[in-house]
Amino acid sequence: MDDKIKFEMEFPIHASPQLLYQYISTPSGLSEWFAENVNSRGELFKFIWDGTEEQAKLLSKKSGERVKFRWSTDEDTSYYFEIKIQVDEITKDVSVIITDFTEEDEVDEAKMLWENQISDLKKVLGSV
To answer: Which residue ranges does the record assign to the START-like domain (predicted)?
Structure first.
């Protein structure tokens, strides 16, 4: 299998970190913008899009700050995706930092997917 490329993206979001955390860390919050439906049993999350199911394991989370998942297809690897909330200490501006891995020839496509996902998140938050 090809090595995947790590990439990071930053998106400014006008929302409180506490509210934002609910949307990135809970099945109900994630179903509002990330997938059509999200279920969880413990640290296993099931994401559903167009009848297709993908499972991810919650690797870590820090309340009000970040969540990190690993897709079941990447189980024996060090690949993950992380959604992190960053607050600028001076301006108090809030950003979401996405860290993800993808195949080298799919980086642009993966970034576009995240841009669309975060755009949906901003609409749900009224932060457009």
So the answer is: 1-126
